[in-house]
């Protein structure tokens, strides 16, 4: 199961990704994010209701964070994402996303 809800104005939406952030839903996740990027100067990802993630979501995040024209921040980083990134050796990603949490921005 995967769902996406969006709150806030188009130029700074808060995108809440819920359920499984896995390969089964990667196409939907990618499409939801791509639909919001053109209008947004900043995006906040809320991952509080996500249940699990895999390499496909880590790859989506890496790609999203490469866009220097967008300010990407995170709220409610789940343990599963940090553990998954650590198991993949993505220490740089962990450092990057934790530096972009609301408490650090």
Automatic annotation (TrEMBL):
Pfam families under this entry? STAS_2 (PF13466)
Q: For the MlaB-like STAS domain, which residue ranges apply?
A: 15-91
Q: Which InterPro entries match?
A: MlaB-like_STAS (IPR058548), STAS_dom_sf (IPR036513)
Domain of life according to the entry: Bacteria
Q: What is this protein called?
A: MlaB-like STAS domain-containing protein
Query: What species is given as this protein's source?
Result: Desulfomicrobium baculatum (strain DSM 4028 / VKM B-1378 / X) (Desulfovibrio baculatus)
């Amino acid at each position: 199961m995967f769902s996406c809800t969006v709150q806030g104005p188009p130029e700074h939406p808060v995108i809440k990704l819920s359920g499984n952030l896995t390969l089964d839903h990667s196409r939907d996740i990618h499409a939801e994010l791509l639909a919001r990027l053109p209008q947004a100067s900043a995006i906040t990802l809320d991952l509080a209701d996500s249940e699990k993630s895999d390499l496909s979501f880590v790859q989506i995040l890496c790609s999203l964070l490469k866009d220097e024209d967008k300010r990407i921040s995170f709220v409610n980083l789940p343990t599963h994402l940090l553990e998954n990134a650590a198991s993949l050796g993505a220490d740089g990603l962990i450092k990057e996303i934790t530096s972009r949490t609301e408490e650090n921005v």
